[in-house]
């Protein structure tokens, strides 16, 4: 680079400055800045931050609106003062920024629906250093500074897998419509479901991903059916079952090919219709409750008040919530009546009560 | 910055050595770093942040801000090198993802493996860039389509390397990223400065001049015996290499691997360089502006939050502010862009 006759150009200054900066870096004792944040004492009222990295899904809307309602209850009692919500479509980088904004807003606790189980580790450590309590919902993270308040995804998937295995019987062939390849919740679910299918001797002839999106669920199911027209069943995760149903409908295979359903109003409407037209239509919908946010709020308030989680309510750093009763052929009418007036995307919901949350503590 | 409209024009043929402030001012201008627009935007966003964000200048505030800036600024720099040469790279986010995935898989949270892992990550980024360059300059495919396709390849390869999120960055990397030098200056800020200085060196180099020439008018550059294809290939390769640096920064910031880590940074990189006054047709602009643009983008995101905009309206307001920023940058740099494109070539 420096082979030409030297001239006084900014480039040379730059080289010099590069060298100088390098020297400074090497010679100066480095240190890590200490944050001066609050200690999250047991007094209150507490400020709680929320970081949500994905919007535009009804499930997340429901997660946030139920949380706001439950928060208002605590607010009236003077336990908490402000709910600071960071909610936008962001990547991991953007969610790191969301959490840093919350840290700088002096929140006492953060409820996060994480976009990655690992890549937020360092920012969680930054928050924990400032005495902030962190609870992850919907999806578990690995950070030791975080308590996961989630359902066991493997168990969740195994419930509908067992139903499907029963429907198609040993030696039955099925196709699978999963969420996002590499997404941890998807991997956990598929592991749980596969274990059931292996056990029951059900063969998975094709497996593809539809990103928990109804219209993609429809396309993927249609394509899989084209390649495998003789299958006995479809395993499909929630958020895509209505799409899968529509694909079956287009092929006129409803009732002929068994499929796992979902506990959402749109699908349940189709289910109700099928029950009227065709008495032996059978399905299952395992709820994945958006109000996990409310359950988490009950847990985090107790943590802020200085209570300690009992060792036996934790599995690693996860607190597994009970999975609500599935919607089945037997209880369908009753369960459908409860939600029939909600919009199609509404998910059958459930949260633990404050008292039930108390049972997890010492 | 009260300079008249001929922002950063060719250096005046001054008779004697001009006074120091004028020299400093001219150095700044010829550095092209702040076109007036992006400097004004930076000043405005910093002032607003200082007013609205509690502890913006506190050690934690500064460190966390620069830790957030660096990955986006670096990827904007990578994109700028490619755009200046007349290309564009829609795969750049996937290059970040793939190189960071390679790094973290080799690193396994072990400081001793850090050098090897970083080298492999950088080599991966450069290789991706080389492939892009060969496809664009060799096969003469439209860059926007070609890199869209290679982006899927790289993203898919990242999933093969790191099938699900995991792998820990070396503690040395994550800790060093959060340190401050001289009691106050965050390490990412120093790295940002080094990035800019490296660009200044490159720009003075023959390759830097060729880059502007090719991006400004490839035909004219070709008749002037500039190796156009080679310069294009090199610009993509260099862009890939810098993108891998962004991947490293992201790894240091997040602490762990994730096969979706950088994918969404592509559009951010383009927005940042446009705000920074780089022309998307190529041949005009620079890394300094893009880096500043990235900082402005990040700051605006924080501002919308700290200004107390209601949650549901934040995306909307953010979008509006970005459009305004791009429009302002476009209006104020429109004059500058009319100048002969490759001013560096005849120096």
Attribute tags:
heterodimer, A: 362 residues, alpha/beta, Rossmann fold, six-stranded parallel β-sheet, four-stranded parallel β-sheet, 10 strands, elongated, B: 347 residues, mainly alpha, ABC transporter involved in vitamin B12 uptake, BtuC, two-stranded antiparallel sheet, disordered N terminus
Task: Explain the overall architecture.
The complex is a heterodimer of chains A (362) and B (347). Chain A has 362 residues and is of the alpha/beta class. Chain A has two domains: 46-151 and 290-321, Rossmann fold (3-Layer(aba) Sandwich); 153-277, Rossmann fold (3-Layer(aba) Sandwich). Helices cover 43% and strands 14% of the residues of chain A. Chain A has helices spanning 10-27, 58-76, 92-104, 121-129, 153-168, 184-200, 214-227, 241-250, 265-277, 292-304, 332-339, 354-358, and strands at residues 46-52, 80-87, 109-113, 133-137, 146-150, 173-178, 203-209, 233-236, 258-259, 318-320. A six-stranded parallel sheet of chain A has the order 2-1-3-4-5-10, with helices on both faces. Chain A has a four-stranded parallel sheet with strand order 7-6-8-9, with helices on both faces. Chain A is elongated. The N and C termini of chain A lie far apart (67 Å). Chain B is mostly helical and 347 residues long. Chain B has one domain (35-342): ABC transporter involved in vitamin B12 uptake, BtuC (Orthogonal Bundle). In chain B, 69% of the residues lie in helices and 3% in strands. Chain B contains 14 helices and four strands. Chain B has helices at 20-30, 36-52, 59-84, 92-107, 114-138, 143-161, 171-177, 187-204, 206-216, 218-223, 228-254, 265-275, 287-306, 314-337; strands at 166-168, 180-181, 185-186, 256-257. In chain B, strands 1-4 form a two-stranded antiparallel sheet. In chain B, strand 2 (180-181) and strand 3 (185-186) form a beta hairpin. Chain B is globular. Classes of the chains: A alpha/beta (362), B mainly alpha (347). The interface between A and B is large, with 60 and 67 residues.
